Amino acid sequence: NAFVMGSVASMIDDEDYNSKEYPSLVAKEASEQIAFHVIDETLNLNMEGEWDLKRLAEATSFGSSVGAQMASILEKSMDFTPNWEKYERKQLAKSTAEGSSLGSTSARIDQAEENLSLATNVEESEGIAENARNDLLTISQHSSMGSLIGNVGISIYYPNPLDRLALINSAAQGATTGSITGVSAFDLTKEDATETFDIEIARSSSNGAAFGATFETIALTDANPRDFSSDSTTINVVQAVTYGSTFGAITAGNDPDVGAPAADAVIFKQATKQGSIEGSLNGASLGTGSSEENIDTYDLSSRSSIITAAASTNAQAASDASSSMATKAIRTSTSDMLMLMKKFNINPRLTNPTKIFNSKTSDNEEDEFLFEDNLEVASPI
Q: pLDDT grade, residue 351 (50/70/90)?
């Protein structure tokens, strides 16, 4: 917290550095290095059994996010001056979230790669890879959660000039981007898996981000998704965090220097939708008083509204992310399409060979989840 705050504040106070966006660059680099070395040193000391890696990832991301936000408002922090910042806070939120996720996942995957190179048989290799996958899923989940809790908390105590939703969106983008970039350094996908490992990371990271944003908002405001069928404060937060997670995952996953090929964009969309819905429901439930052991999202009156908001925003973010990338598309003229339809006797009302005109058979978004297992509820420290 103090290291990031001091480093970023010194950049903000220098007009030359401020104008060149050095504060954001320093925020990301400092967050990444802190997260990396905390996880790396824990592994080097063989203390992962004593020091929970996911909690370390959460603690470092929380501290970095709070430190960077405080650097922007430090000058008037004791006055609690609303709607004031010395540097764009949503950019700092994105930078620290991305840096923390990237650093913590990179440290764990580096050790996995090293250990696998020393494995003497297939059974040992499979055990090393499985342990690494489990660690990375919880690390990415808790790192995202820590970033969102820190950023949302400060934005409530010190309201930011634009709005909290823009900051949530940016932080979620950074968190998913950092996690997917981190695990891209080495492929840990199971041989018999139907999806690549970065798809699982997209789900876990978006889950943690959604949990952190909804939990912190409900805990610190008068939002009440338990009693109201469409609590506007909660729904707005769900939309912001879902958009950010989806956009960040798809753009990172489709970056040829980072993740999977562009064909996997639809799978990233599905994974982030599932993660966002699960995280939002769990965060809302825990934020309204449920215990971690007895969490029951069906007690939420806003449950249906939360799911609908996450699903619709996920679709919009996926569309926007695809449009923002230089993706080649086949464009066919109307006359050519009509000629083909006539030649093959295709009538959209009667002929449906590819099922593209089918309406959804179920209104339950949870029926379309990619993963059947439940992620452990990422309750905050």
A: low
Element (H or E) spanning 295, and its range? none
Distance CA 278, CA 376 (A): 10
The helix or strand, by DSSP H or E, that contains position 46, with its residue range, turns out to be none
Handedness of CA 265, 270, 271, 277 (dihedral sign): positive
Sign of the alpha-carbon torsion through 168, 64, 275, 105: positive
Q: Structure pTM? A: 0.84
Q: What is the DSSP letter of 291?
A: -
Please report, in angstroms and rounded to a whole number, the separation of the first and last CA atoms in the chain.
16
Q: Name, in order, each residue with C-beta under 8 angstroms of 224's C-beta and a sequence gap of 6 or more.
A: 218, 231, 288
> Which residue's structure tokens are 């960077």?
68
**Backbone angles phi and psi of 354, in degrees to 5:** -105, 0
Give φ, ψ of 190 to 5 degrees: -65, 150
Tokens, residue 345 = 């006797």
Residues 206, 245: contact at Cβ < 8 Å?
Answer: yes
Q: What is the pLDDT of residues 143-181, one digit of tens each?
A: 999 999 999 999 998 886 557 899 999 999 999 999 999
